[in-house]
Amino acid sequence: MPEAVIRKRLQTLILAGALPSEIPTSIVAVTNAPGHMCTGCETTIDDDQLQFEVTTRPGVILYLHRRCLALWVNERHGGEDA
């Protein structure tokens, strides 16, 4: 999926309050994870890809590809390079 499309999706989710903009309380990188859907690009994270599990508040865990995590962090800062 093109980066611009992912950025637009993340911006929309952040503005709607569906995706948190606060600083994560934890980020865990997981290998061989069971194919969660990526919050950023809405595609499955394959078990041969590194999956990032991001906790932003109790009970809220985001699953992201490495690239989608970097884009989300950037968009949390208003699109400025983090």
Task: Explain what this protein looks like in three dimensions.
The chain has helices spanning 3-16, 66-76; strands spanning 26-30, 51-57, 60-64. It has one domain (3-76). The chain is globular, with a radius of gyration of 12 Å. The protein has a three-stranded antiparallel sheet. A hairpin with a 2-residue loop joins strand 2 (51-57) and strand 3. 26% of the residues are buried. With 82 residues, it is α+β, with helices and mostly antiparallel strands. Helix 1 packs across helix 2 (66-76). It has two helices and three strands; from the N terminus they run H-E-E-E-H. The chain is 30% helix and 21% strand.
End-to-end distance, in Å?
21 Å
Number of strand elements? 3
Regions with little confidence, pLDDT below 50 for 5+ residues? none
Return the string of H and E elements.
HEEEH
The largest β sheet comes out as: 3 strands, antiparallel
Indicate the proportion of strand residues: 15-25%
Structural class: alpha+beta
Number of domains: 1
Radius of gyration: 12 Å
| Count of runs of 4 or more consecutive helical residues | 2
- Helical content stands at 25-40%
Average pLDDT figure: 88
Major beta sheet, strand line-up? 1-2-3
Shape: globular
In short:
With 82 residues, this protein is α+β, with helices and mostly antiparallel strands.
